[in-house]
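Protein record
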Amino acid sequence: MSLKLSKFLFRYRAFPYLVLLPVLLFDNHWLLKDPYLTFILGPAIVLAGIAIRLWCIRHIGGAARVKDKATSKKKLITSGPFAFCRNPIYIANTIMVAGTAVMMRLLWMTPIIFVGLLIWYHLIVKYEESILAGNYGDEYQQYASRTPRWIPSLTARRLNQPSETPALFPWRKLMKYERGGVANIIIVVTLTLVKEFVLKY
């Protein structure tokens, strides 16, 4: 796959979410009948994704948004969740969206979303990796050689053990940085309530 295509997909990487939300809201085939799955299991999955994402941002801070020159002045982050695999933020995002499908009573769609988003992200990380390789050179190549792209590895965690305690992104800055994510969560919860109590009548 060419880097031009990867760059194009990277630029529009939010597109799947724009497509999924209407589907999750209006597709009422094979709905879950048990409200406990909707209001317990679904939120639990979403919260797990949120926790992983916040853990990621605590370590990577503003370098989370990869741009051609945005990361060149920052240190390569290999601690925290990035010690286990190279793309934990995308994994967290996928978990959150899959949990949203459960909240919308579409359990059957959860594995489809999970696999589909991972494929989508797999297509765009080539572009990100080319930027990181250009900015960090051999340091990134060595990190990539010992750290899986997707499947977390305890062996990689041991190899990426930092020699000193990394400086974590302050919680105040983190919450400001993630204000868009907070807004998205509010939207998802609102849509869930709309679907649960309005559209079914």
Remarks:
- The CA atoms of residues 53 and 92 lie 5 Å apart.
